[in-house]
Structure formats: structure tokens, C-alpha cells
């Protein structure tokens, strides 16, 4: 009996959070190795199912960098990165689209289905949701990598209104209709801003922003825009964390109320963040 009362109390404790977030859009960027382990994947999906059932409107934007690199090496192609962005020639673009829009996207839709949820997997191409310009890094051409120009929220709104969970692969079109690979963090950030999301959460394969990448105790739990910019300058924030932090900065500047970087390897980190007082990972503040 005691055990059941404790369970009921736990449920009641989440009531204020459920009330606060009901009807609100939450964008979840899902990436890193948290997306490779099947048990963890299921645990993340279940968290999102629960969020949806208590009235939040989740939108998932996924990456798949590790999976793309794996298939690139199987096809004897080298992966090359500049500032965390994948250099994308025509063949790499083809592989990226097959992995992202095909394999990764549909596996998430399938997991949702197995949990009794209606999800629709799209890429930024569908409904012309994401339009891009070619991205240059310090003037350097890195191929078919897109800088997001516009997000058209029409299709996403239709899906949300009809109670579907949208799952978005980070691919967009330029004005000529060519396909571009987009960093998934960029896509999540732009979608969160365009949808006026209440929360933007990055689920990744690290505890959050670390002052020393080799020491997990150096986690920064709250980071300001100025501090984040300083850490990028100093090279403390590097690689795949750069686009993530830049998106956090843009998002808090664009009225997304709360932006978090969480460890997707921790069971139920999403639920902990949304439905409890306990702050985990790194939160960005204005
Ligand atoms: N200061 C830092 N603190 C934490 N992680 C850092 C830092 N600097 C660089 N990183 C790296 O950033 C990585 C996270 O970005 P990464 O792009 O690899 O994953 P992701 O964005 O979650 O996945 P995907 O790119 O597949 O969507 C970490 O695994 C870590 O190696
Ligand atoms: Mg990344």
C-alpha cells in the first residue's frame, strides 16, 4: 500500500508542471550516441509519449551524424568536419539523405507507433518547411550544407492540430530545389523559434557544457550568452558543441523561453527536466 501512495504522490508532484506546459510546444533535438543505443532510444521515446499524453506538443528534430559517418566508412568515404559541420559533396549528400530521411527518421516513427502514438516523419523538404542558402564557413565552401533562411510552419501546425507528433530530418531545399544537409541543432533552433516553442531541449551524448571536456564534474549548469561566446572564443566549447551553443544563443534571443542541453544517455533525463524541480544538464539564460 505504502508503495502505491508514494507513486501517487510522485504523480501529484508533477501536476504543476503538467498544468504549466499543457498545450505548449516543446522542440526536442535528439542526437548523438543516445540515438544509437536501442534501450536508450526507447526510453527517450517513452518520455516523449508521456509528454504528449499529458498535453504538451512535442516536435522531434533528429540528427544522425554518427550513423552517417558509419555508413560513409562502409562505403569507403572519409568524413570531414569544419567547426562541427560536415563537409558535404554530392555523394555525401545522397548518403546523408538516405540515412537521415530514410533510416533514422523512420525508425523513430516506428518506435512511436510501437508505443501507440501517431507520428509523422518529414524532412525540411516536405511542405517546403525549411528553405536554405548555401553555408560558407569563414568564406570556405563546404558543399551542400545549408544555412536556414526560412521555416514555413504550415505543415508542422497541420500535424500538431491533428494530434500527430512531427519528427523532422534536418534536410532543406534552396531556391533551385537542390537538397542541403543542415546541422540538426540549427534545424531544431530555427523550428523552435518559428513555432514560438516554450522549450527547446538538446539531448546529446555528454553531460552538458563542460569547462574541461575530460572532467564531467566541470559541468556548467547555467550559462549566459556572454559566457558561452567567451568559451567558444577560448576554444573550450568545440566541435559539435559549437552549433548547439550558437543555436541556444539564437533561441533565447528569439523568445524561446527555456533552452537546455541534456545528457540523453541518462534514463528519463527529459522527464526529469520537464516534470521535476531538479535541473540537470546545462540551461542557457538570457
Ligand atoms: N566544452 C564542451 N562541453 C561538452 N561537450 C563538448 C565541449 N566541446 C566539445 N564538445 C563535444 O560536443 C559533442 C556533442 O556534439 P555532437 O555533434 O557530437 O553530438 P549531437 O549534436 O548530440 O549529435 P548529432 O550531431 O548526431 O545530432 C560532445 O560529444 C563533445 O565531444
Ligand atoms: Mg551535432
From TrEMBL:
Xref: InterPro entries: AceGlu_kinase-like_sf, AcgluKinase_fam, ArgB, Asp/Glu/Uridylate_kinase, Glu/AcGlu_kinase, NAGK-C
Catalyzed chemical reaction(s): N-acetyl-L-glutamate + ATP = N-acetyl-L-glutamyl 5-phosphate + ADP
Keyword Cell division: no
EC number: 2.7.2.8
Class in the EC hierarchy, top level: transferase
GO cellular component, one term: cytoplasm
Domain of life: Bacteria
UniProt pathway annotation: Amino-acid biosynthesis; L-arginine biosynthesis; N(2)-acetyl-L-ornithine from L-glutamate: step 2/4
Sequence ranges assigned to domain Aspartate/glutamate/uridylate kinase in this UniProt record: 24-263
Compartments, record wording: Cytoplasm
Chain positions recorded as substrate binding sites: 64-65, 86, 181
Protein family (similarity comment): Belongs to the acetylglutamate kinase family. ArgB subfamily.
Matches recorded under PANTHER family: N-ACETYLGLUTAMATE SYNTHASE, N-ACETYLGLUTAMATE SYNTHASE, MITOCHONDRIAL
Protein name: Acetylglutamate kinase
Organism: Natranaerovirga hydrolytica
Gene expressing this chain: argB
